Amino acid sequence: MSSAAYAYPHKSAEAFRTISEVASELDVPQHVLRFWESRFTQIKPVKRAGGRRFYRPEDVDLLKGIRALLYSDGFTIKGVQKVLKERGLRHVADVGRGEKPQAPAPVVIEKPVVIEKIVYVEKPAPVMVAPAPIPAPVKKSRAHLRAVPDMSLPFFDEPVPTREFPVLDTAPIPVAVPEPVAEPVSETVQADVLAAEERERLEELLDELGGLKSRLQAARSR
Length: 222
Hints:
Elements: H1 4-7, E1 17-18, H2 19-26, H3 30-39, E2 46-47, E3 53-55, H4 57-72, H5 77-87, H6 89-96, H7 154-157, H8 187-221
Antiparallel strand pairs: 1-3, 2-3
Helix pairs in contact: 4-6, 5-6
């Protein structure tokens, strides 16, 4: 039976409790209960017309468990949220009823089964390389002419008459190269060049001024 049934002997065990009755039993202000409701989504009282809250017996046990974790065990708001998430409402409600919560079942970690995989790798067949062909022996050609001993050639013994030519002097003959003569530039040509450059600069300035004038006119028209 819920602990809320003993707190309200004039009500049945399944009767709903108002927020003032729950606040009085838990010895906390009513605004604390509203604050817990905003922090713990598991607290879901029944709301009637006018926003009045009515708590079921299991809601009261849950609130008592939250109060015990916060005030007695020293948990923080985030700590209680973690307990509710990991162990559930029943664990916190058992704490509120003063019952010893059941220890969670031990987690049995099974050893992973290792499956050995045998991989067969085929070795490539050896490549037979044909031996290099043996070159055929080169036959040495015999000389068609042989030296004949004791053979005299009279026409090689007589010297061939040569004609002597006079030796010419091959020294280079110096040639006089005329030096280039710089033609003087007349002053009129220089003046024309300077005038043309100044004219180009003036035309560029006039173009820039024309562009600025058109921009000013466009800005004024806006």
